[in-house]
Specification:
The complex is a heterodimer of chains A (271) and B (210). Chain A has six helices and eleven strands. Chain A has 271 residues and is an alpha+beta fold. Chain A has two domains: 6-74, no CATH class; 116-264, Immunoglobulins (Immunoglobulin-like, Sandwich). In chain A, the strands form two sheets. In chain A, strands 1, 2, 3, 4, 7, 8 and 11 form a seven-stranded antiparallel beta sheet that branches. A four-stranded antiparallel beta sheet of chain A has the order 6-5-9-10, with no helix packed on it. Chain A starts with 5 loop residues before the first helix and ends with a strand. Chain B has a four-stranded antiparallel beta sheet, with helices on one face. In chain B, a hairpin with a 5-residue loop joins strand 12 and strand 13 (191-194). The relative contact order of chain B is 0.12. The chains are: A alpha+beta (271), B alpha+beta (210). Chains A and B meet through helix 2, helix 4 and helix 5 of A and helix 1, helix 2 and strand 4 of B.
Chain lengths: 271, 210
Amino acid sequence: MHDSNPFETFCAAVCAQVRFRPDRAAIQAELLDHLQDHVGALKERGLPVLDARAEAVAAMGDPVELGKSLDQLHSPLAGWLLAVLKWTSQLAAAAAIYFLILFLGRDLPDLLDPAYPITSRGVLYYQRGMEETENTVLLQPTATARTEDYTLSIPYAVLNTWEDGQRTLSYLLKVTHWNPWYRDPEIDAWISAQDDLGNVYVDGGSSAESGRLADTCRSWGNPLTDYPFISYYDMQVTGLDPGAAQVILTLQPFGVRECTLTLSLEGGEPS
Amino acid sequence: MSRPNIYFNRRRRFLRDSLILLFSLLLLYICLDFPIPTAGLARRATERRAFFGPSQVLCTLEEPIAYERSYAVRWRDWYGVVSIRRSGLFWDAGGVEVVENDPAQALIPMTDQVILRYEEPILVFSNDPNIVRVALEFPAAPEGEPPRLISAVAWSDNGCFVLDIPELPTDTAWTYSRDFRLSGYDASVNRIWFTENPDSWVEQFGVEFA
């Protein structure tokens, strides 16, 4: 006598052996696909439907044995771990999308329309509200200097000679760093300058060798802006000796010389 | 019977969900501006940014003013306070304040100028391992009242003294470390080191405190 619904009976017997219940529906669907494919093939060979069904079920073997082997493949531990992974990934994806929207809303306008292009030398004038004049000379960029965590370079430097003969060196200090946690280092407080005549310029207005006014002979600056891997500083050396042809900038925190950058004050081009 | 497709579905689901998780976490990390997962890493990052350290932590201050945590540290000839900020579940780098050690002085106050109205504790470092108790005194003059001596005491066995300033007159805004009178005591509470009464006590307050 034929079972009224041999597929359901077979699938129920197989699935009863699978301990991880959430997978039972998928296993049943897959088994039904197999069985129906097989029935289709048998019907094409002329077997009656009922016989074809019984034949297809019989070809699958012992449902209990099949169920046990499927249970091995669908262990509850791995199943629940997969479920947790799925929920976690969905939660993380939702959070990432939420913060991405916030991030774009907050930072995209600045990225699309910055107040002033930071890589332009004009930022040096912009910072001080001054204009380029015929007495402004654009200096050659320096080579890079490295510390353990940072690489320093000067993409733009300009030398201004004022009406009273005073000279001011303004430069954009670019600091690259591989670790975003190290952004915006306190470099601006530790850079001193020395010209080829022996004058030393430090922050806080220390004196120069030639006895010129201490408060006008300074090496100082401020952080300009920072990104995860690049920080920029607006730096200057004021009260430069008119006879100086070269300036050596030294990063020397806590008395330890980290690196130096040499900037020639000659050979620049008028801006 | 060959392996059913569902076995491969599991592998595919595992790979797919793992990739989604990794990508989402990476995106989150970038959108949250590269947060620092632990306080120790934040302290180290703060020191690296200041070209300071690696330092030895002497003591920890929880929730000081403007920061969520500060570490009193020592590095070479410097004492310092490394402060870090909370950033949600994570940490962010903060700032470093330093004072140069003077081995000739048994006690080194951390700052030159103390903003008292913030009720921030005053840190004092000891170069003498025998000092386990520190007393700090300075004068304060409330409006319309005679000046009085404010004092604070702290105990420590690691050379780092955190002095909370009690009962300040409301109009006392700040004081300088040059106005401090510092005393160091050993375990038997014998005063083994002290500073003289600062000249400013008489010059500024017109009173000779005992």
